[in-house]
Amino acid sequence: MHQRINPLWMYLGCSVLLLASAVLAVCIGESPIDCRTVFAIVAAHLLDPGAGYATADETIIMLIRIPRVILAAFVGASLAVSGAVLQSLFRNPMADPFILGISNGAALGASAVLLYGVSFGLGLFNLPLAAFVSGTVTILLVYELARTGNRVATNTLLLSGIAASAFMSACTSFLLFVSNENLHQVIFWMMGGFAGRTWEHVVMLLPFTLLGVGVFLTLARPLNALMFGEESALYLGVRVERLKKILLVVSAVVTGAAVAVSGIIGFVGLIVPHIVRLIAGSDHRVLLPLSVLIGATFLILADLLARLVIAPAELPIGVITALCGAPFFVYLLRSRRGAA
Amino acid sequence: MNRLDVNAVGYAFGSKTVLDGVSMTCAEGELVGVVGPNGCGKTTLMRCMAGYLVPDAGSIAYNGRPLRDLPPRECARIRAVVEQQLVTPFDFSVYEYVMLGRTPYLGRFGSETTEDHRYVEDALGLTGSSPFRDRLIGTLSGGELQRVMIARALAQRPGILLLDEPTSHLDVRYRLEIMHLLRDLGGERAVVAVLHDINDAYAFCDRVLLLRQAKAVAFGPPAEVLTAGALSDVFGVVAHPLEHPGTPAPVLSFTLPTPVRRRRAGRIVVIAGGGSGRHVIASLVHEGYDLRVGVLNEGDRDLELARSLGCPALTEPPFSRIGQGSLDALRDWCMDADAIVLAAMPVGEGNLGNLVVAEELLGTKPLVLFARDQTFGCLDFTGGRGEEAYRSVAQGAPVASSVGELLGLLEREIPKAPSLSGAEE
Amino acid sequence: MMRTALFCVTLVLLLTTAGCLQATDDAAATLAVTDDTGVQAVLSTPVARVVSLAPSETEVVCALGMDALLVGKTDYCNYPPKIEGAQSVGGPKTLNVEKIIGLQPDLVLATTVTDTTKIEGIRAMGIPVLIFRLESLEDIHRNIETVGTVLDCPDAAAALVGRMQEREANVSAARHPAEPAAVLYVLWDDPLYVAGNNTLQDDLIRRAGGVNIMADAEGYVVASDEAVLTRAPDVIIASTSHTAGTAPIKDRLLARSVFADVPAFRNGHIVTIDADLANRPGPRMVDTLELFAACINA
């Protein structure tokens, strides 16, 4: 018997979970600030947004922890929802937001900046912009490679993505190899993380995440139809080629923006959609919003762990996402299989 | 009034023409079958009719409106398609899957109305899928899956229903159930199904389109389209129509045509009846003998076989006594033949003449009696005369109890006939 | 992070293997030396051809006046600026083993940062390689003395170490303020990659009378903004890289408004030191120490 929980309860549960992890992540950190102080600070600044940051605690809460938590939530939501969408678009459980080479493309852009001083004269935003541009250009290139006339065959797309990915990765390796200097910077960037992220980064990512999540949520029904193949979707009245184009462009932009502000954080976009499918099924009207919530929660908690495990130092967040996500996923997979 | 019109449709994959001027129609209340050998363009035609492929030539119309003018969403409210198979790596429940059929009616937001749920329930009920409505798609058997796919199509409330080989992977029971379902569905809809099984097309369809190498061979009622000649042309098989007590239409049985390689020569007349000559006729034709079959009543099983193998036969109307004219003709054939085979058959007043002719020719012509055993009594329904005749034939001529033995005897009995077996090997 | 891990792990090894240098006098033609990784190398003396695979080792050899013995160095050995007769054998990642072997060295000098697969390749050809683990000024002294021994110039080595120790003692002896300055050493700003315990810079900060605010982390680590804010460093010393395409590291740090109230930011105590000087564990490290002391006690 196949019985699922009412989605409303799941939304509620996941929202509570998200809120709880956000509160937890704001309250816990390297410097011990008790929860009451945290709430007082947050309340004060909510009531008077223009107030300055008189104490170190205020700076830590308002300028370090909160933007970091929000950024982690945005990135987690963006990657998870893009992953869910691309898995359905390609009908491939192995798909993730980086499947068409956006990560390797972005890494090449970042390496060019970090190793060779390619500059757009934007100071702090040089690196995110370079990563974003090179990432999305890679996807456009892949799309053009796979396009014949007005149609794009998803298999060709997947293969050109793999080819472009490998090519970009080789270019980056070459740059790293011949450069010898600043290597750790590129490595840090590629491992991703939220160290030193500020409100500026949040503002940078905000429109992309909102746009992406918004667009994807309106496409939940056509996405359901697409799960059984493009031909099948067409027979259900879906404009398949247009849908594919929208999904690709939006996921590329959203992922590109996330990568630009946080580097390459693996695993979230691959595993979160599967976790949601296991607990809530494959209906995109439930899958997408839950991926947003769980992706955000997952990355907030992962970042919290990354900050805490070897404090005062930080672990790369990718280590946490894989270390915690993989066993949990395997557990879910096995317990589901036993139940089925 | 729902109808599908396909008018002189042409389609090519690159330089390979897959469809060439194919036309057909399907009106409401009709079940039209599309039949043809693998690679004849059936599925391509289906995809053109469904709007997935755009024909290079000709036109397709739903309810009189050209398909190319219909937006996909509107299209999906008029016609539904059941594809050959359903492939997805993700789990969906049957109910959710069938609800997808409501996609063309639902907006971006907002959930399904009670009406949508009712249509889904109806579709599940109509296809008998309700019992497994909560199961996951991946756990269904082939027959269940096929029903569920049809249910999804029905949830679209289509006036035109297109199905691509809906029974090809199914066990016989499921296959028949699905075919019955399709015929029932035809009531309020125009239904077109690409069919793998010619008998299904014969038995269930109102009209059949027979395709061969991108072209339509014939389109019309099954009995007119699926003739032995057409099937032989298109599929390269010999079709034997067999009357079947359970169905109004005959059941076709298929064999490969006689091998071209002829190993033996010689003209043989087979006297048989009631199925006694079945093995003999088939084997001798396959061996390459030039065969004629002695006087048989219409409807006799041996006669059907002889005809399907292209052997000339002397016939009488059903259940009537063999007339003198036929017996004379039989005698003439026998005199003209290199050998005669008498396949021991049940003998009554009506066909005793056959036996008498054979008995007369003893010693005149090489004759072999083919009988499984020598208990002629149970074959005799004439009160002794038949048995007597069999006994005298059995004394005057060699008896074969198996086909192998018969072939050996014939080779010996036709010494003058040039054997081609040496030339072959 | 790999490097951090490496440093952590190897610290233990360092403590157990320190002082294993032993010259065997009975065999006049050979010299057995155990290096910092515990591997014993047998050299035939006198050593006449040396290849250095690390800028710090190049500096040591030259500081001992043995430039003439140096037949190979890396692309990044930029001090002293010109070394007659020494050919380049590639960069840290692009060491050309064939070329190194072709130079027919009697001895190859390397550090624990050198590519170990390349070292294995060289050792496989029977060429002795000495690997030095350099995480403090003491390590550098030992490195100089060992090189002095194997290159048969122990007096020069002793003199060099003596001069260094004298200057180090001067730094330590200088009058420190009652409240020692909280110091953060930054290698890279995004993420903040800083020196923790058991690093060269940690040693320098201590000797210069400061307190490394990240001393509770092992090796080089990524520090959270929060840690920096909470620990409120009075002085930040950052190394500058030559090729970074972004703005100078000091400007990048100053652009971080989060740190506006950190004393070092508020008082403008952010000092940059050339990366070659700040991060290279050679004889010039004592210059770096004096720079650190000047920054910390300013």
TrEMBL record, chain B:
Gene3D superfamilies: P-loop containing nucleotide triphosphate hydrolases. The keyword Flavoprotein does not apply. It comes from the Archaea. InterPro entries: AAA+_ATPase (IPR003593), ABC_transporter-like_ATP-bd (IPR003439), ABC_transporter-like_CS (IPR017871), P-loop_NTPase (IPR027417). Keywords: ATP-binding, Nucleotide-binding. Residues 4-238 form the ABC transporter domain. One of its GO terms (molecular function) is ATP binding. The keyword Glycoprotein does not apply. This is ABC transporter ATP-binding protein. It comes from Methanoculleus frigidifontis. The lineage of its organism: Archaea, Methanobacteriati, Methanobacteriota, Stenosarchaea group, Methanomicrobia.
Automatic annotation (TrEMBL), chain C:
Pfam families: Peripla_BP_2. It comes from the Archaea. Keywords: Signal. The keyword Signal applies. Residues 49-298 form the Fe/B12 periplasmic-binding domain. The keyword Lyase does not apply. NCBIfam families: TroA_like. This is Cobalamin-binding protein.
